Amino acid sequence: MQNINFDVAHLLAGSILVLSFVLLYQDRITAVLNVFALQAIALSLSVAWQAFIQDAPHLFVTAAIALAVKGAVIPMALHRIVRRLGIHREIEQVIGAGPTMLTGLGLVALSILLVLPVGGNVSVLAREDLAFALAVILMGLLMMITRRNAVTQIVGFMSLENGLVLAATGAKGMPLVVEISVAFSVLIAFAVFGVFVFRIRERFDTVDVEALDRFRGERRDHT
Amino acid sequence: MPAFVGLWCVAALLGISAAGVVLSRWSWSFVPVYFASLLVCLAGLAAAFWHLWMGLPPETLGLQIGLPGTGARFRLDPLAAFFLLVTNLGGALASLYALGYGRHEQSQARVLPFYPAYLAGMNLVVLADDAFSFLVAWEFMSLSSWALVLSNHRHPENVRAGYVYLLMATCGTLALLLAFGLLAGANGGYTFEAIRASRPDAFAAGLVFLLVLSGAGSKAGLVPLHIWLPLAHPAAPSHVSALMSGVMTKIAIYGFIRIVFDLLGTPVWWWSLIALSLGGITAVLGVLYALMQQDLKRLLAYSTVENVGIIFIGLGLAMAFRANGMQLAAALAMTAALLHVFNHALFKSLLFFGAGAVVSATGERNMEKLGGLIHRLPRTAVAFLIGCAAISALPPLNGFVSEWLTFQAILIGTGLPQWGLRFMIPAVGALLALSAALAAACFVKAYGIAFLGRPRSAAARNASEVDGFSVSAMVIVAMLCFAAGILPGPIVDFLQPVVQGFAGARLPEQTFMPWASIVPVASSRSSYNGLLILLFLVTAGVLTALTVHRLATRATRRSDIWDCGYPDATTATQYSGSSFAMPIRRVFGTTVFRVHETVDMPRPGETRAGRFHVKVTDPAWRLFYGPIARMALRASKSLNRLQFLTIRRYLTLVFATLVLLLLVVAAWR
Amino acid sequence: MAVTPAMTMIFELAAQAGQMLLVLAIAPLVLGVTRKIKARLLRRAGPPTWQPYIDLWKLLHKEAVLAHNASWLYRVAPYLLFATTWVGAALVPTYAINLMFSWSADLIAIVALLATGRFALALAGMDAGTAFGGIGSSREMMIASLAEPAMLLVVFSVALIAGTTQLSSVASIFITGSIGLRVSLGLALLAFVFVAIAENARIPVDNPATHLELTMVHEAMVLEYSGRHLAMIEAAAALKLVLYFSLFACLFVPFGMATADMNVDTVLTGLMTYLAKVLVLATLLPIGETAVAKMRVFRYPIFLGGAFAAGALAVFLLFVSRSF
Amino acid sequence: MIPSAASLLEGLPSLASLWAQLPVTPLQAVALVPAAAVVLLALIPWYRLGAALNVLASGLTFLAGASLLFAPRYRSDILIVDDFNVYLVTLTTFVAFTTSIFSASYIGHEIETGRLTPTFLRYYHALYQAMIGAMNVALVANNVGLLWVGLEVATLTTVMMVGIYRTPEAVEAAWKYFILGSVGIALAFFGTILVYLCAQEVLGEGLQAMAWDTMLYAASGFDPKLLSLAFVFLLVGYGTKVGLAPFHAWLPDAHAEGPTPISAVLSGLLLNVALYALLRFKMILAANGRTIDAGLVLVVLGLVSLIFAAFMLYRRRDIKRMFAYSSIEHMGIITFAFGMGGPLANFAGLLHMTMHSLTKSAIFFAVGHVAQVKGTQRIADIRGLSASHPALAVGLGLGVIAIAGLPPFGVFTSEFMLVSSTFARQPLLAVLLVFGLIVAFGALILRLQDVLFGEPSGPAGGVKASYLPLFLHLALVLAAGLWLPEPVVRWFRAVAAQLG
Q: Of all helices (H) and strands (E), which one includes residue B357?
């Protein structure tokens, strides 16, 4: 019994990791959004599984939140933004897909290297989950810094947040206050994002972050 | 008791500066402020004098303020008392002078609050008995004088001077802070007792010495840390310049003596090597730069650098003798140094007062625009002449006595065992002799150009004698210079309690020597008697004059200048300051300065005037400070790119740092 | 007969006063002698030896002409110069050591006294506000700023050998001959001669006989002076020469001086030997002067630098080891 | 800031009796008063009334915070009041109070110049209170999760306020702040989870495994590897909010483009609170003892921030951005101090935190007035302030002199302890520290002189604002430089001992 629990949790966490690899690999916005939705669903599954094996019902709430918000609402909203702003579908990457993947692999290795030596009294399950979560977080960050497009950066941040949820649920018996705060922060995050994207829309008709950087306070003093 | 008086003086001065803030909107406000400062300084003077005169034991008192745990401690021992005396003497004279001079100040609000605060700061430095209060007072002194330097802030060069000044002052303070940190140790015994008790090892002591030399030296104006001094001292109002040159540099020397001789214990001989070499170089370079100046006050500032060098020579000798246990010789050298401290405080104040009088009478600091002031400002001229003679170390005035004592100390130097010192001391003696002679040339120039000859500008032609307060201040100092010159004995004895503490011995009683002469070591070795010299000179001079007038003729006729039969009415034909300095510039110009002489000679037939322009630059700028400033700017320029990265790149920075730290954790065993 | 303290006091006072008057009396004569000898060396008859006395007398009785803008300093300076030089000369032991006031100023003080006089004269030179005065003062101070350190180094070397800066003590030590011949003493002598030549405005540094020449130094400084003031300055110059002669005599050939026991014959021998020494020096000086040519102004630094170097070397040797 | 022992004694019973009659304890009040104010202010359309209420609410919060000093120490699994946070709460509420006074006079001018509209002021005041409440929560939280929540809410509210001018620069600054801030949020949260994992193995599941003080007792049993990992994430996460280089990028623009009161609160309070959070975890590491050397990491980060910011100061053209960099510099000094550790250095660090928040907020008050009277933030366009506006010039001058570390101000006291003790222990580090200090000093004084002296520039109109907050802060800093009250010294010593 213990085994099957472990294996399923492992499988789901692994799938999340794989999905964030796919995210790294994608170079079309629509595809990125879909993959992200997929990852969110995988996340909610894994959270639900955790809720089941830890018999911690409150985690089902988290799973539901993840499924609803990240699996459905946010991807749709982002699709709408993309359509409304008419962002060209190609994502210009800073470094090519190949090096990015290699870096991702390196990060996975690093996270495993970090977590494995952790002392025995931390449960194996938590440890494995932790390794995956850490990898997902780092890869989300990697995605944010290898994409020039604001929407993809948002997505990268979201997948980073997925990693957080994964870790949080992996931590046995972590009080509910935390999940709520997570969801809370994610909501705020998204709200603020929306506000900003629209502001940016009416300011610069683009969401390319480089465009923003032209408007730095001191830059004009150079001329 | 006197220690309390000293602290009350500080409190009173702070009160006065607060009052200055309130009063300064009225034009007459300078009178009460300076008068009150005068009274307080006199009180402090009396307290210090009393302590030295009665030979009271050191007295300490602590207040529950300042550094948590340590508290603020104050102590009055002979050394502190002597410097307190010098400080308040200078302060009193400056305040008296300012009673008249103050009315020329345009914006009282920029001077009146800071002047008493400045005095308070200097008094506090001398009284402080723990590292924290010492540094607070030290920096407070710098800060208030910085404000005074900037009192005339509309001249860009004053602002620059203020900047350089405050920056250098803070570097010095930080050097002292490091020194104290080393002395106090990791668990912070910041009181001077604790520091005295803890004997640092040789390396630490050497490090502390170097730090203190640079910290106190930068405040005193040791070459090459002197660059701020000739900028800042002239920029301030003249009574403040007098305090900065005459007193504040002495406070710096007090700091040096306090830490090196008192807190650090017995010095090591190689310290004296460094102090001596720096002192000698400072003495000569200072006076050479002074010779090159056309700005009267800047000339005086550079001559301050020279005198600081002389004092450091004395201190260096004292260290050398102390390190080898030659206590009597150490006492002699120390006495010479302290006496020169006292003397320089006197005549440098006098000279700055005179310069202030010239500035307020003519509005000119540039000597090339002056001349013939001896007719327009007769009293000032006399006082200034005495100051010039005194600072040129001419008998029978006081400057000579201290230099004579220094020479005597140098002549004892043969007894030192270390070869380094044996080579250094004669060289320093030569440098000292050179600086003395050059100082005479420098002040002949200063006086001859500014006060003698024919006026070179309308301002100088229409100048009129300054007010009574200023004149009385100058006259008093001039008299003091004379008194200290002809009766040095009592002053030397007065210094002995101070010297005793650090040299371990004292000079023989001087006051009751026959004919009131001073005999530092033994009458068979050397003795000097200013009183008799004066007597002889007066009798010889007066007798001759009388005889000539009586027996020969006293007929006198006024006529035009002869000038070899080619008199030229234009005052421009006179020798100018730069032309006076030209021979010496030629002699030393190649080696010491970077002299740029640009001649613009019109071709024959051209009607325009020819131009000759000399630019003398202080090599310290070229060699040290210029490169440092350029380096800082280059660094900031290259780092500044980080202000203009894209968000993505900033995220990359964060990410990179995170990964780096994770690798560290992974690698950590 | 019993000698009471009062009488000894009187005797000592008399001795001191005698020396004071002696130097004053012989100064013009010395000048005359040098001029005479120089003239002879130049195959001229030359003025009579006592001519300087006559010159002084004449000047003293002429009215003094002052520029309109001449200040009190201009009139005081000559007397001050004269006084300092005279006092200096009177404090150098001539025929006897341990005179009453000999201790009141040591060698350093005497050098400084001369500096005081020079200071006054240089200022006076700038008082009238002429180009010549300025040139003179400026060059005088330049020379002094090099000569004075050299002189002080000479003082150092002597003082280091004798262990004192007190002229009488120096003489009383050297007179015993216990010191012997010293390398450092030789160097000091060399430096001393150089300095003396420069300080007394003699060839090759300056030409006392010149006028209206851009190379003149001392004469340019006193160009505006006339009458009694000029007389004072001339007298001071003569006294200065005597001072250096007697300094030379006292430091390097102190033999024959009257020492502690002062009675008539010791004093007389001292007097005779002193006069003889001065005479010899007064003969040697013009010979040297005629042998060399005057230098350009900006050669002085090298000349005096040589003196400085010699003095410094002497002092170094003494610091390194006492046996040099 | 803190009354002397005498007034403390006679003040104690009256305050106690006052709070006895109220339904809430001071501890609840520091969070509840702002919460109530948020709702109220969000509803009030009149901006003058809003400003007044803002001041009132802040004043009440300050009262509550100050009376925490006299209330007995308190702990639960959620909240805690101990030596460390009690004075920080007082400080925070105090600065929030004075800043609200300043902002009341400031926004009036902004309305006149039309940079802000009353509608935005509604958000502004509500957000201001929200931020204060959040920071107080973060300070009094015992539960590290709650600490995190408080800090994040504070950050997000400031993000919105930074963007409130809606100029391209403001939006861009807010955007940058938001992106970097939320990455920080995420990383810090991960760190928190890791800490919980460590604690949960020792203390069992549930709240006590997130309560800071229980963790501190059990810290020795934590897994060092995991704890180190947690600390790294917390360092990067909270360090971003502290503004340590190289996580500093958001800070200068956020300070320069937002309203000046927000700049004051950011520099004065938010950085402190973030650092406070970091220190809470450093205590746990110190108590564990087998982790990576947190001190070393802090020292390195501190030196990097100090020297980097010091050089950046030279080329700043915007006066607010310059002082923002000076905040980075001082955060670097403080981090360095805590990295050095030991009683003296820790004491210095705590003192420096307090002094910096008081001084820097005072400077921003002054800068706000300057920017308003001169109509520009460009240093090059501000000249001769001492001639045109003497009082303001004195305020700014004293502020900069204090922040530059000159006596007799409090900053000098802390730098004195830090530099001297460091030189006695690690001479090389002290030399680097002094180097940074001198470089920064040179830049600050250079700009200060440019601004204060020379021929006056711009309009010479009077200032319609109260200097009370400005000079109150300066007076406190001066007083602290001359005399630290005994209780404060006691608290600092206690905390310094815990910091290891």
A: helix B327-362
User: Which pLDDT belongs to residue D10?
Assistant: 52
Half-sphere exposure of D79 (CA within 13 A, CB side): 15
Q: Where in chain D are the domains?
A: 293-500
Determine the pLDDT at residue A50. 84
Number of domains in chain A: 1
pLDDT digits (tens, 9 = 90+) for D365-398: 999 999 888 888 899 889 889 988 889 999 999 9
Euclidean distance between CA atoms B460 and A202, whole angstroms: 71
CA dihedral D334, D340, D341, D342 (to 10 degrees): -120
User: What residue of B is the nearest CA neighbor of D406?
Assistant: B139
| Partner-chain contact B150 D489, CB within 8 Å | no
Nearest to D56, CA basis, from D74, D73, D36, D81: D36
**Local confidence band at D2 (pLDDT 50, 70, 90 cut-offs):** very low
DSSP helix/strand/coil, D4? coil
The DSSP code for B61 is E
- Does an H or E element contain D12, and which? helix D5-21
Residues of D in contact with B153 (CB under 8 A): 384, 386-387, 452-454
pLDDT in tens, D405-437: 998 899 999 999 999 999 999 999 999 999 999
Place of tokens 């004296």: B272
**φ, ψ dihedrals at C295, nearest 5°:** -95, 160
Helix ranges restricted to H, D163-258: 168-203, 212-218, 224-242, 250-257
| Probe site for chain B from C19, C85, C86, C103 (most B CB atoms < 10 A) | C103
Q: Which residues in chain B are contacts of D431 at CB distance < 8 A? A: 178
Secondary structure (3-state) at A149 = strand
Q: Which pLDDT score, from 0 to 100, does residue D321 have?
A: 93
SS3 B499: helix
Q: Which of B392, B410, B413 is opposite residue C119, by nearest beta carbon? A: B392
Q: Which helix (H) or strand (E) holds D395?
A: helix D390-403
Q: Give the number of domains in chain B.
A: 2
Q: Which amino acid is present at B191?
A: T
pTM: 0.93
Provide the pLDDT for residue B1: 66
Please write the tens of the pLDDT for every residue from B201-214: 888 999 999 999 99
User: Nearest-CA neighbor of B477 among B95, B46, B23, B5?
Assistant: B95
How many helical (H) and strand (E) elements, i.e. helices and strands, does chain A have? 9, 0
Portion 172-231 of B in contact with C at CB < 8 A: none
Contact B177 D179 (CB under 8 A): no
User: If you average pLDDT over residues D312-325, what whole number do you get?
Assistant: 92
Strands B556-559, C64-67: pairing kind: parallel
Contact at CB, A203 and D169, closer than 8 angstroms:
no
**Residue B667 is assigned to a structural domain of this protein:** yes
* Contact status, residue D412 vs residue D437, Cβ threshold 8 Å: no
Q: Are B137 and B393 in contact (CB under 8 A)?
A: no
Say whether both B626 and B590 belong to one domain. Answer: no
Domain range for A39 is 2-222
Per-domain boundaries in chain C? 5-320
Quote the mean pLDDT of chain B: 90
Which residues on A lie below 8 Å from D186 (Cβ)? 137, 157, 160-161, 164
CA distance C41 to chain B (A): 30
Tell me if B408 and C165 make a contact (CB, 8 A cut-off): yes
The ipTM of this complex is 0.91
Query: Which domain does B647 fall in, by range?
Result: 622-669
Sign of CA dihedral B236, B239, B243, B246: positive
pLDDT value at position C99? 77
Burial label for B19, CB within 10 Å (0-12, 13-18, 19+), is middle
Nearest to D210 among A137, A175, A216 (CB): A175
Distance from CA of C176 to the nearest CA of B (A): 16
